[in-house]
Design goal:
Blueprint lengths: L1 H14 L16 H7 L6 E2 L1 H7 L3 E5 L3 H4 L3 E2 L3 E2 L24 H10 L7 E5 L8 H11 L5 E4 L2 H7 L4 E2 L20 E2 L1 H6 L5 E4 L3 H4 L17 E2 L15 H10 L8 E4 L5 H11 L5 E4 L2 H8 L5
Parallel strand pairs: 1-6, 2-4, 2-5, 5-6, 8-12, 9-10, 9-11, 11-12
Antiparallel strand pairs: 3-7
Helix pairs in contact: 3-7, 6-11
Amino acid sequence: MKKVLTLALLTISFILTGCGNTNNSTDDSTAETTRAKTSFTGEYIVDADYVKEHLDSIILIDARGEDAAKKGTIKEAVPMAWQYLADVENGASGDENWGLVLAPKKLAERLGDKGIAKDKEVVLFASAQEGWGDDGRIAWELLAAGYQDVKMVDGGFSALKEAGLKTNKTGTELKPVDVNIEAINQDHLIKTDELKADYDDYKIVDVRADEEYDGEVLYGEAQGGHLPGAIHVRYTDLFNKNGTLKDNEQLTKLFEDAGLSKNDKIVTYCTAGIRSAYTQLVMDMCGFKNVKNYDGSFYRWAKVADVEK
């Protein structure tokens, strides 16, 4: 089983290479006093200094996965890719269950094997706007699985290094623990059948890059384009140039300028539900409480439904 999973992860890693930041954002030269006033705040976000201060009491996860960790990670971090918590071993992208959140029993087993205890504070980091929002995907999934204290590091791996945390090329391993997950909370999760049935009830938000939205097939999608009527809000537009999130006021304006209100029922999606999971959490922290992430996302929709270009 481990060989199959390893092969699957290597395949997905090859397909899903990181995306770059090609969009306008805030100048890095902003004074420290201004940064303090404009930094993003929210229940799922901490800064690098917080991690440094609480390192002995938290579980730190490198959501970029083991391959990235081999090139350098935080010494105390547990490397774990989002694919480890998803159904990627059976079938191919776009198949009915491919890439979806694992069933509760299997998910509990995987998290337990990694030592991710439910009674601990879990803090995740990834590569900010240079990556895929992997930390957001795992955080979104942990919250749906009943974990109560989940955070992401603003600025990701780069911010942690700049804060002076020690690095190595292995991370750490925790002792296995017992994890119980009775059910996956569906409040911020939507699947294809439900989205199809209630499509007109939602505003659909595509968080992919321009070329993906416009119809280029970059990652093995069944066809190019976007969901009908989808509003385009790029994942990379959430960030400043230094990799930290723009402040709450800026991001709220970004969403409202795109035609979204805090009372709307909203669905976010990307290629496989990774960047869109991160965006769902950010929108929630900005007061958009009726947002669901499309688990399966464009991989699945492009295979079974009509798209626009």
